[in-house]
Amino acid sequence: MALPESHTLCKRRSLRLRDLNDVPLISIPKKLHPRFYDNVYSICVEEGFRPTIAQKVTTFAEAMAMVADGVGFAFTHECYSHVKWQGVVIKNIEGQPLMIESALVFRKEIRSTVLPAIVAALQIKKKPASVLAFRRKAAG
Question: Of 2.40.50.140, 3.40.190.10, 3.30.420.40, 3.10.50.40, which CATH number belongs to 2-94?
Answer without folding.
Answer: 3.40.190.10
